């Protein structure tokens, strides 16, 4: 009986170790998939921006509206900023809903802050931004992208991780959560500036949100 119990204990321990190993492997694979997915989204947005820039800067005998710009004074957090063309037509809307370190499940479920690819070596510097956006009149799929600056005026580094943020067709809305690495810990930054600037149908739009804490 003792031999059987001993063998059974070894077998049970082996199964537990195998399960733990499988769990670690699955967690690593999930981190990798999240990173690859976010990287692909970033590449797609970058290519779209290049195409729009080339279309806007290309020589053409036809008249263009490249000189048209829609700029805003500071947009207001929690209130939709509407992008309108020169005729007043609503093209898109962006609402900044949160800024800070109240981490979503995307971060907490897999302890992303301990991942050096995510935290960029400075987990205390990571800031999380959440947006809602609506495509009112853009015929092609649309989603916004942003540039972030910290309280020193330095441009924050994009972690290239993003939850949501897919292009939406006309009449539809989406949400996006993005993470950026500031030059200083978030707690020591008295201000975070978020800027949007892009071309839609040869019309340049820009907006700025200023978050202070």
TrEMBL record:
Biased composition (Polar residues): 49-75
Keywords carried by this UniProt record: Signal
Superkingdom of the organism of origin: Bacteria
Signal sequence bounds: 1-18
Spans annotated as Disordered: 49-77
Name of the protein this chain belongs to: DUF4352 domain-containing protein
